[in-house]
Each structure stands twice: as structure tokens, then as C-alpha cells.
Design goal:
Elements (H helix, E strand, L loop, with lengths): L1 H33 L4 H4 L28 H10 L2 H31 L3 E5 L5 E6 L2 H12 L5 H4 L6 H12 L7 H17 L2 H4 L2 H5 L10 E4 L1 E2 L6 H4 L3 E4 L5 E11 L5 E8 L13 E7 L11 E6 L10 E14 L5 H35 L3 E2 L2 E2 L4 H32 L5 H31 L13 H7 L9 H15 L2 H13 L3 H7 L2 H24 L1 H6 L1 H21 L6 H11 L13 H12 L4 H9 L1
Parallel strand pairs: 3-7, 5-7
Antiparallel strand pairs: 1-2, 4-6, 5-6, 6-10, 7-8, 8-10, 9-10, 11-12
Helix pairs in contact: 3-13, 4-5, 4-7, 7-12, 7-13, 8-12, 12-13, 12-14, 13-14, 13-21, 13-22, 14-15, 14-16, 14-17, 14-21, 16-21, 17-21, 19-21, 21-22
Amino acid sequence: VVNRARAANDMMKLSLRQSCRLSRAATVALRRLSSSSNSDYKSQPEVFQRAKRGKFSQAQPELRNPFIEDPYLQACLVRLMPSEVVGDSFSDLGKFGSRIVSEIDRLGRQAELEPPFLRPYDAWGNRADELVTSPAWRAMKDISAEEGLVAIGYERRNHQWSRLHQAAKLYLYSPSSGLYSCPLAMTDGAAKLIEVSGEDFLRSGAYRHLTTRDPRQFWTSGQWMTEKKGGSDVADGTETVAIPQPDGSYLLHGYKWFTSATDADMAFTLARIADKEGRITEGTRGLSLFYLETKNELDGRLNNFEIQRLKNKLGTRQLPTAELLLDGARAQLVGDPGRGVAGISPMLTITRLHNSISSVGAMRRILMLSRDYSTKRVAFGKYLADHPLHVQTLARMEVEVRGCLVLLLEVCRLLGLEECGVATATDRHLLRILTPILKLYTAKQAVSIASEGLESFGGQGYIEDTGLPVFLRDSQVLPIWEGTTNILSLDVLRVLQKTGAAALGSFTDSVKSRLSATPQLERVGLTSEAERLKHHLDSITAFAVRAAQEDTPTLERAARDFAYSLAHIYTGALLIEHATVDNSMPNDRVTAQRWCSRPLPLRKAADYSSTASNMDLMLVMDGYGLEQRSQGDRH
């Protein structure tokens, strides 16, 4: 054993001596290498020494005037507006596009980087409820007034086309707004509610502030509906109580779980009026609509409510969203008691429209940036724009954006007709059924396009410093706010049930009318696409009639696919119509062809049967509760 240990020790010493000799040899070789005059060994490694990062930096995507760079928007407006309105609107939109590039987009980014925060108490322990927002956020309020982003819809200088002008301007603004588009949505909705309600005290006061172009007088509005029990189910989820006062006002007591644009100047909210004994009426019949101003006029303090906390959200971080404790907030009744849901409906119509504007605007913007980047980024020896697969992906996104845009502008056109008193019964039915369809469809597509858009930038699309991930984080709120996809799908069914065959008949007649221009269809080569849409229309109409007659739950289970199919058909008809006008472009035909080649989302009736529904439940619940049951068995 001793001999083996000595031998191992001798071997170790030998190995160390050899290692030292090798180390000295390596050192000499490196010195010779560093003193060599060969440029391959001398200059290249120095590029990456210490602070040097190499000579390459990737050019970033550039935002150019979003109106000038969007010929499809221009073509759609030309088709929908008379020439004198086109001239006035285009002048305004072009100037606004320049302001977006030079000023607004930078402010929107600043608002993202400087999110709001709450100071609940002052230094001396007094309740302060001070909501601190970014200077950029406050600047957006002034810009919104100056540009008439709400006012355009109510000045109606361009008559029934004013809503188209306003929508186009908001579509350009929204992706750069730092989410100030959200308070503008509720402000526009509040103005619409007041206009419809006919309440004199609101018309002479709040309405003027909501629709002014004077930044010193401009107000924004909140919409306080969601409580702890949930959002869409206001009938069973609203617990706020309104106590009548001798002067005719009410004191509100409740907890509002989710209030966006908490820095607004006013708000509309729902509550249940208590009688002298403190009793309230449950359900929808017990809900009344109230108006309140958020601050007391005399001292500027909050109107008897406390900001409990700001929400920590996935996206929309620029936007102050809070939980509020109403502790005697003074409010005024709007409309008749028990008519709160009906009273606030006009506001919801407008906010859903704004949701769609934000959806389509975000889709267009991420595609614009991706398009520009494809001309700057080199991969595998050529620009991304020279890779057919990359361009194919962007082209599919482009078709989706164009389809969503024509549907959006059509709903805005119908709203303008209604507001100016020139809408037909068909127009009104279409507006009612297309509004939830537009919102649910564009919101879902916004998330998909935002995700695909980020992927087109590769790793840079995942880096927050680029500002690109904001598109995806902010777009995720769009299918949730103002009704989820399923809630809105059921709303489409309610429209059909309330109007009988009228709404579906108006939808069918409108599609057929847009597909009836046979000579124009033949001229642009879209006859087969028109016939395909007509076949889809017959199928979906037959499905709706059969399901309503045989099994009402079948139609409810199919509601989502049914609504998507309506969106697919109507958008296809609009794209074909746009492609058949005299000044259409070859790209318009290609867009219509590619849209109409898609399969209809609606399946056969058996897929929505009670048997299929039971199978759905079995699939979803497979394995659920096994751990609890196994623990119970052991006990």
C-alpha cells in the first residue's frame, strides 16, 4: 500500500512538471501570436474588447404618417363619403397623422413608462387619495380636446359622415395614445347617453364639457358598473345602494370593483334605490342609472368615495384603474327608477364601437411596423421582405386587417345614419346586430394579429425596451372589456329573438344586395366568391331557423360559431362590394378572394346537440376532483 501511494505521488509530481512546461509553452505561443503582423489575428478580436460591441446595430422600425401610409383606409373613405366630405376629412387626417409621428406617439410611450400610482395618505396621516398620473397622460387630455376626438361625432359638421371621420381619426390615434383612447371611449359613450336621455341638467352642464374642443373646459367620463360579483351580470352583481335625499339627490354606498379612467371628471353608474325602510328591489328591475361628478366643486376633494387601490393589470398599465369605496357619494338620478340597464345601453353601444376601433387600429399599426422592419432586417443573406414565407405571413395579416376595417367603417356609417335621423328600419336592425358582431370578432383578431406581429420581429418582439410587447399586452383586454366573446355571442341571439325575423332578414337582404351586381362581379372575376357567400348565407339562415324551431339550447351552444360566421359572411360581402367599384385596385380583388376562400366557422347541427354538450363537459371535467376524492378515501 505504501509503495502504491509513493508511486502515485511520483506520477502526480511528473504531471505537474509537464503541466507547468505546457503552460509556459502556451504563454510563449500566445505572446508570439499577439505580436504577429497578421491582421486576421490582430484586428478582429479587438472589436469585441471591453466597451466595444461590434460594428452592427439593427435598424429599428420607423413610424411614418399612418394616414398617408394607409391607402386602403383612404380608398374605403372615398367609397363611403361624398367628395366634399372627403376633402375636408383627408386634410384633417393628414395633419393629424403628422402630429402622431412628431408628438403623440412619443407621449404615448412616456405614459407607458410612467404608469399612475396612488398616494392614499399624506405625510401627516390624513386620507389623501391622490392619484398621480404622468405628464404625458395629462397632455393627452388636452390633445384629445384640441383635435376634437369626441367633439367631431357631435358637431356633425359633415352630417351623417361625421362618425366616419371621427372613427378614422381615432383609428390613427389609438395605437399611439398611451391608452388614452379608453377614457375617450367612455367620454363619447357618456355624451351619447346624455343626448339620448334628454335630461336638461345634463345637456346644459356635463354634455358641453364632454364635447368641447377647449382643453380648459374638457371633461372625461368614467363608467362604474363592475362590482365584486362580476361584470357582465349586472342584474345579480350590483349591490350599490342609493339613499334618497330631501333635495332630490341620492347618496351612493357600495364597492366598485373595476373602474377604468379613475381620474375622470364624472361618471355614470348603477345602483338600487332604497325605500324608507331600507328595502331594495333585486334583479334588473331594481337597477337605476345615476350621474355623479368625481370631485366637489368647492374644495376639489373626492365626492365621498375612497380609492382603495389601483389594479395591477397584464396590460393597459398607462390607464388608472381602481377599486372604489362609495361612502355617500352624491349623485343624480338619470331617467326613471328601475330603468338603469336600458338607460346605460347607448353608452355601451359607443364603448363597444371604440373597442373595435382600438382593435383594428392596433392591428394596422403592428403590421405597418412589421412591414417597415422587413425592409431593414437581413436574415440568411437577404431582407425579410425577400423571403416568400415571411411575406406570405404578412399578407395573411393584411387580409385580416382589411376585412376588420371594412366591417368597422360600415358600422360607423350606420351609426351616423341613425344619429342624423336618416336611417331606415333595415339600417337600424343592421346596426343593432352588427355592433356586437364587430366587437367580438375584431377583439379576438387583435390578439392574434398582435401575437403574429411580435413574432415577425423575432426576439426583438419579446423585448420590452422596443415598445413592441405593449401591443400584445394591451390587446388582451379587448376581448374582455365591454363583454367577452361568449357574452356578445349571446347578445347576437338576443337581438334575433327580440326582433323576430326582422334583424336576420335585414342581414340577409343586405348581403344579397351587395352581391347582386353581376356585371361588376364578372368584370373583376369575383362571381364564384359571391356564389360561395350566398351558399354560406343560405346555410346559416337555415341553421338558425331549424335550431330555433327544434331545440333552443342548440342555438345557444352554437352562438359563438354562429356569430363568427355572420362576421365572415358580412365582411366578405363588404370586401366584394369594395372590389367592384369603378376605382378599385387589383389588391382589392385579391383581398376578397382570399377572405371568401375561408371555411365557414359554423358546423353541422349535431356538433351542438345535447349529446355533444355532455361530451364537452366530460372532456373538461376529466380528472377534476380526483385528488380530493382520493384524500377522502384514505380518511
